[in-house]
Automatic annotation (TrEMBL):
It comes from Nonomuraea glycinis. Keywords: Membrane, Transmembrane, Transmembrane helix. The keyword Transmembrane applies. This is Uncharacterized protein. Signal peptide: none annotated. The chain crosses the membrane at residues 30-48, 60-81, 114-134, 140-164, 171-192, 198-224, 304-320, 326-346, 367-389, 395-416, 441-462, 468-488.
Length: 496
């Protein structure tokens, strides 16, 4: 091996490539380049037309909500990067090269290049979103350049901060602070009395935009330089853990089994934790079986806070110009997602019904007991979301929250108890391409109950009538009927 660390890593990778059965050929590189050029050619004209349509003054009524959505998108990206790693390696490299004396930065160079590409794409999208929100009253080209520099600086700086947070607990704390600041900025921009400062920001001269872009680029460059230096001292423990998570996610994506991600997240949560024994609660057996779901919710106040804060998203979408259909879909989809956070026990029962059989609890009794938590979560979340989204915060729309809760609870339970994707099902050939029916049916399992049980509420949210009494009564009957029918038609899980 050479004394040069980077050359040593290259020699190791060349040795591995030489032992493979197949290697990348010139035709493979040509195909990749051709597909990239084709993508640029297809998207070039639509993107150009979108950019040309950005010239003009910004809509002051939508300025605050638009900036809030951009801040939330950056926060979601940072949270996803922190959850996934972001620095990861393939399973073979993580098992073999990480613990060797090779230069750690050279080993992680491929991952660093991949993160740079992700930051480049995310920064471009963020820049387009920024210029779309702020508008371009004059000098469109220079304002577009400034917005792109700001977007790239935010994405590159955020990615570098996530890398630093993976390597150091101190920087991990700073990453948490950055997430909190972004959330505060989003709330203030959406609901705070900041219309005058935002209007001044939208009408700022090009020189001010250039100065802000230069400052952001300098700060991002400092973070990137620090992250590049930190790659050489990246601890092996967090790197191996992140590589394991990334490998599990990749496996679930390759085999088209998204349901495995829930098991992966739950196993990662309980791995390494010490379990304590406690007295059996003095309550009926079905409620005692559902008690762990409530305890998990109470013991994760951070998740509960995020769920509560997300109730403001439909209001932000409404202020940003989203139509009634978009707001209605966001409310019902958000309620279903919130309900799905409280059904992990039903997923466990479906995979291993030993506890229910030991306690002599039937499937229907267990489902009714487990439906209480998702119904409470979804009903409260939708009521809060509709109260915030409704003009003036008064009206009867919030009553749909408790009324759609039974249907959403049934849909969440159905989603939790669905079987893995059946890849043996036929593939439908359409003019737009082949559609695998197995993943499609898996994706619609549970959503079908939500669509059926929340139809009156969706009609009321998209085209609100003068009198909501009939739709409220219809929603009450539909929601209860869907939950009762689902529980009555449920069957015990098959023994594996």
């Amino acid at each position: 091996m050479s004394a040069d660390p980077a050359r040593s890593v290259r020699e190791v990778r060349a040795f591995v490539r030489s032992r493979r059965r197949t290697s990348a050929r010139l035709s493979d590189r040509y195909t990749s380049g051709f597909m990239l050029a084709l993508l640029v050619a297809v998207l070039g004209r639509p993107v150009g037309e979108v950019v040309e349509g950005l010239a003009g003054q910004a809509d002051l009524a939508r300025l605050g909500p638009g900036l809030a959505l951009l801040a939330l998108s950056v926060a979601v990206g940072l949270a996803a990067a922190r959850a996934l790693g972001p620095v990861t390696l393939p399973a073979a490299d993580a098992a073999w090269l990480v613990l060797t004396p090779l230069d750690r930065r050279a080993v992680l160079s491929r991952s660093a290049r991949a993160l740079a590409m992700v930051a480049l794409v995310a920064g471009g999208l963020l820049g387009l979103g920024l210029i779309a929100v702020l508008g371009a009253p004059d000098q469109l080209v220079w304002r577009l350049v400034g917005a792109m520099v700001l977007g790239l600086s935010a994405s590159a700086g955020g990615m570098a901060l996530a890398v630093l947070g993976q390597a150091s607990q101190t920087w991990h704390a700073w990453l948490s602070v950055a997430l909190a600041v972004l959330l505060v900025v989003a709330v203030v921009a959406a609901f705070g009395p900041v219309r005058a400062p935002l209007a001044a920001m939208a009408g700022a001269p090009v020189t001010a935009v250039a100065a802000a872009a230069a400052g952001a680029a300098l700060f991002a460059a400092l973070l990137v330089r620090r992250a590049w230096a930190m790659l050489g001292r990246m601890p092996a423990g967090p790197l191996l853990a992140a590589s394991t998570r990334a490998g599990q996610v990749a496996t679930a994506a390759v085999v088209l089994d998204p349901g495995a991600l829930a098991w992966i997240a739950e196993d990662n949560h309980w791995r390494g934790r010490k379990l304590r024994s406690a007295r059996w609660p003095s309550m009926p057996a079905p409620l005692a079986m559902a008690l762990p779901d409530w305890l998990r919710l109470v013991r994760r106040p951070g998740r509960l806070a995020v769920v509560a804060a997300s109730a403001a998203l439909p209001a932000v979408l409404a202020q940003a110009g989203g139509g009634g259909a978009l707001v209605g879909v966001s409310v019902l989809a958000g309620g279903l997602a919130v309900a799905a956070t409280g059904v992990s026990g039903a997923r466990r029962d479906q995979d291993n019904p030993a506890l229910a059989r030991l306690l002599g609890v039937g499937t229907r009794q267990a489902l009714l007991a487990r439906a209480l938590l998702p119904a409470l979560l979804s009903g409260g979340w939708i009521a809060a979301a509709l109260t915030a989204a409704e003009p003036g915060g008064v009206g009867a729309l919030w009553l749909f929250g408790p009324l759609v809760a039974p249907a959403l609870a049934a849909a969440a339970l159905r989603m939790a108890r669905r079987a893995p994707v059946d890849h043996s099902m036929p593939v439908i050939d359409t003019p737009g391409g082949a559609i695998p029916t197995g993943p499609m049916l898996w994706a619609f399992t549970g959503v079908d109950l939500a669509l059926l049980g929340c139809l009156p509420a969706f009609v009321a949210l998209t085209t609100p009538p003068a009198d909501l009494t009939a739709l409220l009564a219809a929603q009450a009957l539909t929601g209860a009927a869907v939950l009762i029918a689902y529980v009555l038609r449920s069957r015990p899980p098959r023994t594996r």
